[in-house]
Amino acid sequence: MFEFSLLHQEGAARVGDFSTPHGALRTPVFAPVGTQATVKTLTPVHLKELGASLVLSNTYHLYLRPGDELVAKMGGLHRFMRWDGPLLTDSGGYQVFSLALTRKIDDDGVTFKSHVDGSSHRFTPERSIQIQNNLGADIIMAFDECSDPNDRDYSLIAMERTHRWAERSLKAHHRSDQALFGIVQGGVDPDLRARSAEFIASLPFPGIAIGGLSVGETKSEMRDSLDVVTPLLPQNKPRYLMGVGTPEDIIDGVARGVDIFDCVLPTRLARHHAAFSSEGRLNLMNAIYRDDPRPIDEQCDCYTCQTFTRAYIRHLIVAKETLAGTLISIHNLHALIRLTEQIREFIQAGTFYQNQDRLLEQWKNNAKREKGKHP
User: Which of 68, 90, 138, 297 is catalytic?
Assistant: First the structure.
């Protein structure tokens, strides 16, 4: 049911197909994040029109509300959110990591307090898998511990715990219609990363995720970690770089053999009036766009850019109309989905590395806001 076919390869960069019960994923692929069983401000119809093929939802948040048992009662996450394409859920490990002041970790699992009402809860590998089985996503994650990348000693403890939890997650998982991915940890220490990659690769997971990056390390440390990890992973399994999805990171990740990316950045930026563009990141609240007749990006063919001006979108922002977030989200997600399509075309033509520097140059200023006067 879950097979990964490698269709084209240029150096480490790959184009592949990963089959799931809800359709095949052509990789490299960018997955919009629907934390609460919705990609913020967008409908499933928007996502289909954008060409999205994979959506990520959040185990921790859906466990707290509305509850995984309710989702199961409603027919599973696909039916609940009316998305008929492939779905991925994370394990809740990262969210627990982010609750540093309200959680307690031991070798069996994690006790934490809900950010919603302060109530106490406990996740173990078995409980995380049970919750994800109830949610019913096509791709699910082993429970892991994400650690501070700058603390090598604790990264070792967290890595070893992640390995034990990976084995427990495998034993707890019984649904044949869900692909369980193991997760590589190890901070930014190359020896730990290599040990973790080799251990997770030795287990019978149909896919492998790379966790614990984009959590405070430098970009060069992320790239160095990928340089260590991906050569040690099986060629016949998809590689998922968790929570990473700036344009630059996608380009650099593909160059190092990564297949799947996800990130909240496109919709989060949209809610803060920021848009990707070939000019660099634009803050559309800036007064310079008050009477600007151009689209967000004149090189873009998304619905937003084909229909609306910067002036109109700025008007919506100033008037506090929610349509602004929808239109910018459509554009930002289109930019990343189109980028991965373009990358696949380059790999298929054997010209990805030839075009890598040009792509990085085109997208380099999207990691920061452009300068402009605010009203």
Answer: 90
Give the residue among 99, 155, 138 at the shortest CA–CA distance from 20. Answer: 138
**Beta strands per DSSP E along the chain:** 4-10, 13-20, 23-27, 29-32, 55-57, 87-89, 103-105, 110-113, 120-123, 139-141, 179-184, 207-210, 239-241, 260-263, 274-275, 282-283
* Known active-site residue 262: yes
90 is catalytic: yes
Please answer whether residues 206 and 179 qualify as being in contact, where contact means their C-beta atoms are separated by less than 8 angstroms: yes
- 3 state SS of 234: coil
Out of 1.10.10.10, 3.30.750.24, 3.30.460.40, 3.20.20.105, the CATH code matching 4-263 is 3.20.20.105
What phi, psi does 325 have (nearest 5°)? -65, -40
Please, what's the b/e burial string for 36-65 (b: 16 or more CB within 10 A of its CB; e: otherwise)?
ebebbbbebebbeebebbbbbbbbbbbbbe
Set 68, 189, 252, 262: catalytic member: 262
- What is the C-alpha radius of gyration for the chain, rounded to an integer number of angstroms? 20
- For 174-191, write each residue's pLDDT tens digit: 999 999 999 999 999 999
- Check residue 33 and report its DSSP letter: B
Confidence of residue 72 (pLDDT cuts 50, 70, 90): very high
pLDDT single digits (tens) 212-264: 999 989 999 999 999 999 999 999 999 999 999 899 999 999 999 999 999 99
